[in-house]
Write a structure and sequence with these properties.
about 260 residues; alpha/beta; 2 domains; six-stranded mixed beta sheet; three-stranded antiparallel beta sheet
Length: about 260
């Protein structure tokens, strides 16, 4: 039975994804609901990027089906890792955000509407006063906010973030995740947060797509997926799951015995 398309961003059934004849993920079954906050988590090399490409519509299934609610892909705002933007170019923060308004016309001139949307996006991430600062002079955390603003300037229905806390210190990473959580709540965005940092994601998202070694997947609400059995199988070692200060805590079982 198909889900209500008005409440669904994407639904994948019995799908296999890969490149050429090489299969990366098989038997993929998942549904992402509109307005959900989803964490896509797993070790490096298990297929997270492959699944993201499939969700974004740039990789078609080799087998099975992938359908979007309403029949067409939603407007995705994609936030890449910071290293994907060459910081050597003398671009201001505003310049970077305006990139989202280029659309298909690389030589397009930005109009008042484009600048208004870019200004709103900068305001949403708290960077209005940094609009004319060179992107390369920003701290890591502010660069990440700039890339989030760029995605917002495209007026997305769904936001996909690739390792948004990678390379950030503890406080900067926490601030970025709090920003994303606030944006998701205030604008009813569908958010897909890709990360290998399970402890960070567990404290932030509502639902989880957990990809294990070998491509096995667990999909469901956070508390359903974050079980000791699932995580111990994923990491090949005993894992304990608990709660402290209202947050999920995930640690290796042998860490409990250290002096």
């Amino acid at each position: 039975m198909k889900s209500d398309p008005e409440k669904t961003v994407v639904e994948i059934e019995g799908a296999t994804f890969g490149y050429g004849r090489k299969k990366i993920l098989s038997g993929v079954n998942l549904r992402i609901a509109r307005g959900d906050f989803v964490g896509l988590v797993g070790p490096n090399g298990v297929g997270k990027t492959t699944l993201v490409r499939a969700i974004l519509g740039t990789l078609r299934p080799m087998k099975g089906t992938l359908e979007y609610g309403g029949g067409a892909p939603p407007r995705f705002g994609y936030v890449p890792q910071r290293g994907h933007l060459d910081a050597l170019y003398p671009l201001t923060t505003l310049d970077v955000v305006l990139m989202a308004r280029l659309g298909r016309g690389v030589l397009k001139r930005f109009d008042a509407e484009d600048r208004a949307r870019a200004g709103e996006a900068l305001e949403h991430v708290g960077l209005t006063d940094r609009a004319n600062t060179l992107y390369r002079d920003l701290s890591g955390g502010l660069k990440q906010r700039t890339l989030i603003a760029r995605a917002l300037a495209s007026e997305p229905e769904a936001l996909v973030l690739d390792e948004p806390t990678e390379g950030l210190d503890l406080l900067s990473g926490h601030a970025v995740l709090e920003l994303v959580r606030d944006l998701q709540a205030r604008h009813a965005l569908t958010v897909i947060l890709v990360s290998h940092a399970l402890d960070e994601v567990a404290a932030t998202v509502r639902s989880l797509i957990l990809i294990e070694s070998g491509g096995r997947m667990e999909v469901g609400l956070r508390e359903e997926v974050l079980t000791e059995d699932h995580l111990s199988r994923l990491y090949g070692a005993p894992i304990r799951v608990g709660e402290a200060l209202g947050r999920f805590v995930v640690i290796p079982a042998n860490a409990e015995r250290r002096p």
